[in-house]
């Protein structure tokens, strides 16, 4: 039950200071810690982060930090990537159960069997996967650089793309290359309802629809602009439009409003009018859990060393090719 609010293993009401922001700031100094947060985190976490970004920029920050402790306000595969890049640093995730349905949709054993059917393929994996899948890949990509990376691969080689089938279809369309797709998906991005987005467009005829490529093709075909979370943020600032229907996790709207305060952002609705367009995994992290993680230096991310080494090369290749 990922949406259930559960106490942090060390949480007791008398351990949460009244002035949480000051306490976090003090712990940051004591630990020489850096707080990295994803755009899908709650606004209060976004506001205290040292660096806020999408998967690519957070990986770059993690690769270059001088901090001794990385507090990763995001989901498990993101913190794991930070640990792969920084084996000697302490990497903390406020809630260890902040997973990802997309990463879970690609179990390592089944993927190994799938990969064995195509022995000469290059394996490109979206960063939203476990360390074990990264270790079986040739190169990692994010939604910011997937098209550029696939374009640079030798034309005479076949490519497996995992785990997100929607991003894979989008990359196929943009590059004209045929990809062998693993059929994984994200519960959040598959929840946007084409019919409801069209109804919203009728209600707000001047609004531009902007969408993340993890959305289904049926939604993407209505989009005026498709891009990673960072690209969507830039686009809504630069566009002359003043209204946007936003088809990605609505946590990003906090930054959109900060960066373009005069503009109007409408979250794309989910199929059942539920809150399932919000990522339940990202929502497991709270400011209180973040404080407790720093105070008790756990939950800590650990990775088997042979998997870490195997996963490091494909991530480094991506960072080298991300310009
Ligand atoms: S929004 Fe989707 S892909 Fe992103 S962390 Fe949540 S479940 Fe995973």
The name of the CATH architecture of the largest domain is: 3-Layer(aba) Sandwich
Low-confidence stretches: none
| Shape, per Cα inertia axes | globular
Q: CATH topology of the largest domain, anyone?
A: Rossmann fold
Which hetero ligands occur in this complex?
A: iron/sulfur cluster
Overall pLDDT metric: 92
* Radius of gyration from the alpha-carbon trace, in angstroms: 20 Å
Percent in helix = 40-55%
* Helix and strand pattern: HEHEHEHEHHEHEHEHEHEHEHEHEHH
The tally of structural domains comes to 3
Provide a count of the helices.
Answer: 15
Question: Which structural class is indicated by helix and strand composition?
Answer: alpha/beta
Our estimate of the beta-strand percent is 5-15%
Cα-to-Cα separation, first versus last residue? 40 Å
Q: What is the CATH superfamily label of the largest domain? A: NadA-like
How is the main sheet built?
4 strands, parallel
- Overall number of strands: 12
Quick one: CATH class of the largest domain?
Alpha Beta
Fold topology:
Layout: H1 20-31, E1 33-38, H2 43-48, E2 51-53, H3 55-64, E3 69-73, H4 76-85, E4 90-92, H5 101-104, H6 108-116, E5 122-126, H7 131-135, E6 139-141, H8 146-151, E7 159-162, H9 165-175, E8 179-181, H10 194-203, E9 208-211, H11 217-220, E10 225-226, H12 229-238, E11 243-247, H13 253-259, E12 264-267, H14 287-296, H15 305-321
Parallel strand pairs: 1-2, 1-3, 3-4, 5-6, 5-7, 7-8, 9-10, 9-11, 11-12
Bound molecules: iron/sulfur cluster (SF4).
The site of iron/sulfur cluster (SF4) has 13 residues, from helix 5.
């Amino acid at each position: 039950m990922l949406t259930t609010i559960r106490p942090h293993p060390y949480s007791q009401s008398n351990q949460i200071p009244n002035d949480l922001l000051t306490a976090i700031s003090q712990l940051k100094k004591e630990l020489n810690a850096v707080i990295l947060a994803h755009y899908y985190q709650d606004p209060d976490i976004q506001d205290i982060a040292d660096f806020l970004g999408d998967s690519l920029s957070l990986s770059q920050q993690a690769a270059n930090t001088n901090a001794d402790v990385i507090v990763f306000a995001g989901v498990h595969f993101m913190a794991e990537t930070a640990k792969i890049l920084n084996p000697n640093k302490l990497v903390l995730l406020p809630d260890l159960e902040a997973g990802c349905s997309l990463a879970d949709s690609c179990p390592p054993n089944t993927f190994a069997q799938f990969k064995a059917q195509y022995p000469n393929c290059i394996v490109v994996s979206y960063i939203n996967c476990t360390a074990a899948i990264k270790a079986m890949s040739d190169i990692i990509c994010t939604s910011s650089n997937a098209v550029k990376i696939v374009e640079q691969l030798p034309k005479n080689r076949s490519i497996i793309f995992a785990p997100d089938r929607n991003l894979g279809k989008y990359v196929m369309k943009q590059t004209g290359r045929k990809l062998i797709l693993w059929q994984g998906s994200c519960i959040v991005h598959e929840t946007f309802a084409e019919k409801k987005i069209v109804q919203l467009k009728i209600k707000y005829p001047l609004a531009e629809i902007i969408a993340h490529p993890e959305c289904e093709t049926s939604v993407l075909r209505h989009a005026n602009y498709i891009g990673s979370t960072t690209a969507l943020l830039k686009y809504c600032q630069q566009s002359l439009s003043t209204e946007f229907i936003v088809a990605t996790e609505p946590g990003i709207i906090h930054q959109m409003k900060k960066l373009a305060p005069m503009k109007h952002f409408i979250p794309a609705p989910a199929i059942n009018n539920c809150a399932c367009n919000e990522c339940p995994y990202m929502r497991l992290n709270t400011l209180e859990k973040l404080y407790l993680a720093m105070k008790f230096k756990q939950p800590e991310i650990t990775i088997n060393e042979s998997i870490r080494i195997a996963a490091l090369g494909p991530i480094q290749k991506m960072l080298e090719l991300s310009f």
